[in-house]
Known about the structure:
The chain is globular and about 55 Å long. The longest helix has 15 residues, at about 15-30. It contains eleven helices and twelve strands. The protein has two domains: about 1-75 and about 185-235, D-Maltodextrin-Binding Protein, domain 2 (3-Layer(aba) Sandwich); about 90-185, D-Maltodextrin-Binding Protein, domain 2, CATH 3.40.190. It starts with a strand and ends in an 8-residue tail after the last helix. By secondary structure, it is α/β, with parallel strands linked by helices.
Amino acid sequence: MIASLGMYDMPHIRGAHxxxxxxxxxALGYGPExxxxxxxxxxxxxxxxxxxxxxxxxxxxxxxxxNVALVGTPDYDLPDCPPGHxxxxxxxxxxxxxxxxxxxxxxxxxxxxxxxxSGWAAPIAHMxxxxxxxxxxxGSHVASLEAVRNGRADYAxxxxxxYLLWADAHPDSAAWLDAFDRxxxxxxxxxxxxxxxxxxxxxxxxxxxxxxxxxADRSALRLKGLxxxxxxxxxxxxxxxxx
Length: 243
């Protein structure tokens, strides 16, 4: 069996994720002793051995729907955001005062992946009818932040949870950046399991484990609870053209 919590598994919170998984496993009564790390996410998501993982809304509606079962959606208690939803921050360098429209027309947009809800689909919808003139793929949200900070790109859309977690660990780097705009909230990154598994026991175990988080781990992970969001809410969002 495979368990992975890799979507937000930054080095400074891996211990908290390990403790969360230990409590999920204890509540379930079975499962791998350790989380799978450093493996291809698509291989994890599509494995018939998948017990629990977290994916992104765009991969779910574009390719995974019908092949996995939804377990639940985490609530990260983001500011001015409905439970179980998230948004993207539009990021630019602090000294750059250009509007989003000007950046779209004149600048380079860093993006993590063309199948990312927060890094690609949400900002494309937010900028419409404009589209970015120039783009730079980076492979991850953190790499997009660094590309903007280092001047290899002028702006980026970054998952709000990623940005806040990264800023917690890198306040000096975050001080160079300006989160100057945000996209509309959409359903957050869902937990999934293999289609052949019953998701209900996993949801119960997740709720119990999240409720048992220590104050320090809850703060580090920014994880408040688990909510039920129907598959239809994910599938209703558009799939933008690939960059």
